[in-house]
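Researcher: Next sequence.
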Amino acid sequence: MESKGTKVSSQFSSLRTHNCGELREADIGNVVTLCGWVQKARNVKVTFIDLRDRFGITQVVVDPTNDCYSVATSLGREFVISVKGTVIQRSNKTDKIPTGAIEIVPIEMKVFSQSLTPPFLIEDETDGHQEIRMQYRYLDIRRNPVREALVLRHRVAQLARNYLSAHDFLEIETPFLIKSTPEGARDFVVPSRMNPGEFYALPQSPQTFKQTLMVSGIDRYFQIVKCFRDEELRADRQPEFTQIDCEMSFVKQEDVMEMFENFVKHILKEIKGIDIQEPFPKMEYADAMKYYGIDKPDIRFEMKFVELTDLVKGKGFAIFDNAEIVVGICASGLGQASKNDITKYTDLAKSREIGGSGLIWVKTTENPTSSVSKFYNSEDLKAWANAFNATKNDLLLIMAGPKDTTRNALGRFRLALGSQLNLRNPNVYKPLWVINFPLLEWDEDEKRYNAMHHPFTCPLEEDLHLLETNPGAVRAYAYDLVLNGWESGGGSIRIHDNALQLQMFKHLGFTPEEANEQFGFLLKAFQYGAPPHGGIAFGLDRLCALLGGQPSIRDYMAFPKNNQGRDQMIGAPSPITSKQLDELNIRSTATTTTATTTATTATTTTTSETANK
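Model: Next structure:
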């Protein structure tokens, strides 16, 4: 860990000889110079100062006879100082910090700058609420947990860069000011001063550029790149996020998956010390939805879905008789759950987060009992238990209703219950590939198809014959790398044939003219020899959160936005002046000078591989 200390070379710093996490008993007797922030200053006959920098903490001890005593007693929290002094053995050794065997007796002490009293404790366990810590993010970053999160992010990025470079990938930057197109998720847009009435869009991903690079003969590309989406926020979503974006030429799906399965194994081994030898399991999208109700299942624990529809109908219980599907999970060892426990599970199932309509339970004890025992006898309940392969001390939890919504709700419930039962151990990593996603998904509101992944995803060869007659049944060469219930990476094999790409655009509702207007540059590039190609993108923020064991990607960003998309430290977004609006040829009103650009958005085709990881 970085807190163990790293020597600061005098080549780069004439103000200090060592950092605050570096000194040990072997340094006793040496005269050193340290610089840092005052973590604490305690006056008890002598003055003890905890001096902190990014590498650790060293104790400085000053008695009243020391020439530095008056300076030492004037110090407050977060003053920035330098201390030149002699390393001695610490009188009260501690193993809580790496420097706990030594302390410094100062010869010289200098105050570089004073500090106001911080609005919260700059310690591992702080009293600061998230909003105030985001406002003073530069103070929050001084705390070990935040700093260590940023160190982890640095390590992951460096490992990615080194791994990909070693495998002949070229790091190439693509533009941030690109073209907006009218489909799917919202873009952030930027007005052009030099081209009045016209706008750039900030990229949701470099998708079309990296495909163009494959046409250029680059063969293997990567970029650790900022991407932008103007959408509602949550713990794993920010308006700007970072992707490890990759593309390869002359590959099939298996080639891409093998390359990046080894990439993930490398990251897990280097960061967590976990050496996974066996291949990652592969799961069909259809099976993920059937058995887990979600396309990113957490396979650290069981509770696969079992359908009971045919077993339960015809007994007079209207909820089951009228349901399109009756499906449930088996919670092992919970057959003795109390009435309060059952109520807690039912409330969870009906919560807004889960969205279930209710919950039926069965205790598979010697004489099974159920919330529907009025309609089903003991033999019926034993047949249900047999369908689940349940033991005599399990709890069956069952939902009923429309097929898709019921499966989705049960999938969310399964994850939430797994968390409550401590079955989702953050120190256990179970990756898998989810493959063969549908190429298209039907939009009931607009009565047309959308691309499930993005419009450049290649259909499975064996399903091509269905593209005109039954497009909703066509599967795609699309794959997600799922880690502990999070989609950590996603990609696909791309269409490289113009005719097939135009056919895809047609199914998405584009006329040939509209397709050419929005993506003509890519279609033209394909006319000059496009290789078979495919790629993947990993969400760097999300990958770091997984490796760090935290639920929010914000913990791994230096300066994140809040849930309203605001940067509380700098106060963005903010109004701009009428003069600026005029220069941008945006009409301002008499009542406000708020920049309409902060509210102006255009919708674009979803081209992000990993939709905001």
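Model: The longest helix spans residues 144-166. The first strand starts at residue 31 and ends at 44.
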